[in-house]
Amino acid sequence: MLDISQDNTLTLDTQTALNGRPDGATFQLVEMNMRKSMFLAACALSWILSASQAMAAPALSVLGKDYTFPNKIEGLPARLSDFKGLQINSFETSDGVKLSYWEAGEGKPLIFIPGWSANGAEYINVMYLLSKHYHVYVLDPRNQGLSQRVDYGTRISRFSMDLKEFSAHLGLKSADYCGWSMGASVLWGYIDLFGTKGIRKAVFVDEPISIYSHADWSEQERLDAGGMTTSPERMVAAFTAGAPTNSLVVDMKPIERAMAKDSPYFVNSESFANTFIKNDPNYLAKVLFDHATNDWRDVIRHKIDVPVAIFSGEYSNNLPSQRWMQSVIPGATLYAYTKAEQGDHFLMFKNPVKFTTDLQSFLER
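^ thats the sequence. predicted structure below, dont judge the formating
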């Protein structure tokens, strides 16, 4: 009456189908098989869904070994293994690029977008301090950090789309976003393309509003925009290949301050990043020209309608442009660090305790 095929499919035989109804035992077998099939289908669907998302992995297992930081600092991990909740995950963008991201903590989501050539490893101290209060994410941009190296999509607009797709991957309806250096430009590009829906609060850390200084600008226009080069080509060559330049062509203050290892916090995060992250200057160079030639003044004037905090400092030549940005964004807060407070382009890494305290104060008010 009931045929059990080799592929484990149950079917009623032809005679039963033509001459009468199957008996109760047959119904029970059919019902059992249906339940089994539904269970198997559910398992398959679950596997497909889980395979479409990256699995969380402890940073220690992804990086392959432990790490001891050069300086012992109270309140911060002495070894990588002391940061118990740190994970490194990944997802794939719509144009087929695998992007990695660092993750730690629980609570309200807080997303960091690193600057040019930077990565999540450099945020190790910032993440450790903030993960006590927030679910912290740091996205490694394409061609940076642990993310895939590709020769396409190397423009700020695509990086902004990557950020949008990252937020969708996480399933976030609302989050706080903090862009440092080029990461601020990526966030401005995001706002330009998609608006501020989904952004609860925005934080911009020491990024010129227009890196390229136009020849027909007045000196005040240059200061307000933060223009730091008259030749994007020379800037790319200087930053990626060490080509000679001078301060009339390219502002080298960020490089100068990066070389100043005048903070034990900075020494720890930089040495950690340098141990595990190997950047390729050829890939880093691909986005830099596009980055240098964007002018975001219209976005800042007209499109930012969420609470904003801006961080800069006395060591940075960007401070005048950050003051201009504060003046045109209603209600924006400017945190201007002194030289004693490590107020340069790397302030969040050189003084992470003050930075995270100030950032949390802004986010919670």
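The longest helix spans residues 24-51.
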